[in-house]
Specification:
Elements lengths: L2 E5 L3 H13 L3 E5 L2 H11 L3 E5 L7 H10 L8 E5 L9 E6 L4 H14 L19 H17 L1
Parallel strand pairs: 1-2, 1-3, 3-4, 4-5
């Protein structure tokens, strides 16, 4: 079981991604901004950080910069997710649009953990579907998809 630090200032997306990661059998640590995430990372040393790009107090880009510069945390893999198009930040191994399908989120997490030497989690023979999620998470997914449709 891997420990993943999930960082996002949007509570609905934090809840959705937490539920997906827990269904994949990961331990999830949660932070609402980069400053809180950095404190948690020092206390708990996650196997992976999945962070939003734009957040209050400390952005995801600044969080990435600090993680890469930290002697204890520099090798923790980072996935950046954002509604912006492919923002670049130090140490980011993968970018994931917030408009991505949940299966893509699952695949990127598993691939990043595998590439970093951590073991892959989640049901190996099937993907997480909307039916696996709670009613609240399904509604958040629909609202996110609707919002993404207007962006394209």
């Amino acid at each position: 079981m891997s420990t993943i630090l999930l960082v996002d200032d949007e509570p609905e997306l934090l809840d959705l991604y937490t539920e997906v990661l827990e269904l994949m059998d990961h331990r999830v640590l949660r932070a609402h901004d980069g400053r809180e995430a950095l404190e948690i990372a020092h206390e708990r040393r996650p196997d992976l950080v999945v962070t939003d790009w734009q957040m209050p107090r400390m952005s995801g880009v600044e969080l990435c910069r600090r993680l890469v510069q930290d002697a204890e945390l520099h090798d923790v893999p980072i996935i950046m997710h954002s509604s912006a198009t492919d923002p670049h930040a130090p140490g980011v191994r993968a970018f994931l649009s917030k408009c991505s399908e949940l299966t893509e989120f699952e695949e990127v997490v598993n691939r990043t953990l595998t590439d970093s030497g951590a073991s892959q989690q989640g049901p190996p023979s099937r993907r997480i579907t909307l039916e696996d999620l709670s009613r609240v998470a399904r509604r958040t997914t629909w609202e996110t998809d609707s919002g993404c449709a207007t962006v394209h």
